[in-house]
Amino acid sequence: MVPMIPLGAVIQELKESSNRRGLNLQLPCDGHYQPGDLRWAFGYDMRTSWWALVEFRWLETLAATGQMPVMTGTLLTPNLLRRVFEKTHTARVTRRERGTPTNPGTGHDVLALLACMRQALPRELHQYLHLDLTSYDTISTAYALQMREAFEETFYVKAGEVDQRWRSLIAEYAEVVQIGRTHLQYALPITVGCWLAQLRNRFAASVREARKLSRAIPGKASGAVGTSAALRHHFGTNDLEVGLLNSLRLPRPLQSTQITPPEAFVRFLGEIVLTSGSLANLGEDVRLLQSSDIGELTSIGSTSSTMAHKTGNPVAAENMAGMHGSVLGAYTMVLGTLVSDLQRDLRGSSVMRGFGGVLCYTYQQLLTADRLLKSLRVNEARCTENLQKAGPCVTAELLYVSLLHAGFANAHTLVNKVIVPAARATGCDLVVATDTVIKQTRNRRLRAAWTLVPEETRRQIASPRDYLGDAVKLAVRTAHDQL
Fold first, then answer.
1. DSSP state, 300?
2. Are the C-beta atoms of residues 128 and 55 closer than 8 Å to each other?
3. How far apart are CA 445 and CA 137, in angstroms?
4. C-alpha atoms less than 13 angstroms from C-alpha of 71 in its C-beta half-sphere
5. How far apart are CA 420 and CA 418, in angstroms?
6. Residue 278 neighbours by CB under 8 Å, 6+ apart
7. Are 433 and 363 contacting, i.e. CB atoms less than 8 angstroms apart?
8. Which residue in 195, 222, 336, 384 has the fewest CB atoms around it within 10 Å?
């Protein structure tokens, strides 16, 4: 039996092949947004290299299971794999597929790939190349491996760096009080760290789930309609599919047609969309809190092309929020592949080439988030000013529920319609306003309920800054929650 090249070494060889001069490494997204870290995985000229990787692995599987002579199997070396990658960049394969006026092409992308691979492989291996496979055994398996490795090797690493920076800010501002907002209106006091923690926890949950789902995208080697007919006929088993997928650390689907079931891709990339959404929400919140009227934050900004007084346009935050639209657009293409005629037609083949766009656009958001979080600063004085501006009435919730607990059933209406307006009219806190209303109305039931409200609760009602609940605890817990 001939041992296989370790998968890590295979991926490293593929990465190295992306460093060759003259390659077109354009990513499947807008030309302005081309995160270089993903070019090894999704660059244009790398696509068919992933296909070649699977075909080479199939040769290794045949060798490792004794389906070719041992001497032939020993030809499958890292140096040979390197030559295969040199011959199978997408531009070269496409030229072979399309041909020229004097040299007709194959008219088929995988047949063109095989023709290019034969230029690198010793003749003894030619008869085993693509043996008993169909084109989407190669392509479906390659796309599953490509997506998982791009996520594990690059996306997840950057997500961890962003998460670390995010949690550092949460720890730094865990106790900095700001007024919370609902419906863009003043609500209850929270802390800056608590606000950041909620968004970070959404982000972390999606990244963790995406990691799990990236490992659930299956490959296949079960032939033209998924019945393993050729493998069964020639080898009496379909264990070769198991061997191939195990060597690539890919799961095997319960059943395939000519393509793998599409749901795994949809689920994984759907979780990337959710990751994008949490990043977009961070950008949206920052741009709101950085606005002139609120002014509680500063982050990377720019001037205006005409208004020379401006230096604070929140360009990074806006880019993060807007990029989510590009992610959604790319994901729409993925959803379109859920349906195919009799579970196999070629409508989805061209679309699948762009699946990486979801990951690339979201990775661009990660890069922007990293810059944003590095630059993010909190104006604590403005936080205090806005809390004071919100006024003493923001603890009306505590007053209402305290009276309710004390047995005053009509507490919400009383607080909302009588006590809060009285406090706002005079500028006093809610404790003073409640005492005044009791004196003015001589409401015995209210007086009795108010008597039962503890002194500590009354101090809390009069001091909105201290009405934080678990805000600090939530922030601290998140700050220690490593991705």
1. S
2. no
3. 78
4. 2
5. 6
6. 199, 202, 203, 206
7. no
8. 336
Whole-angstrom Cα distance, residue 312 to residue 349? 45
pLDDT of 236 reads: 82
In a 3-state reduction of DSSP, which class is residue 36?
helix
Predicted model pTM = 0.94
Q: Please check the confidence at residue 124 and state whether its pLDDT lies above 90.
A: yes
Largest CA distance in the chain: 104
What tokens does 8 get? Answer: 């890590």
Nearest in space to 372 (alpha carbons), one of 328, 323, 318: 318
Q: What does the block give as tokens for 88?
A: 């199978």
CA dist 247 and 141 (Å) reads 12
CB of 121 closer than 8 Å to CB of 80: yes
Question: Given the structure tokens 């692995």, which residue do they identify?
Answer: 57
Give the span between the Cα atoms of 430 and 451, in whole angstroms.
Answer: 15
- Quote the distance between the C-alpha of residue 299 and its chain's center: 22
User: What was the pLDDT predicted at 307?
Assistant: 43
Please report where in the chains the tokens 């460093």 appear, as a residue: 19
- Looking at residue 298, what is its pLDDT? 92
Crossing angle, helix 455-462 and helix 430-441, to 10 degrees? 110
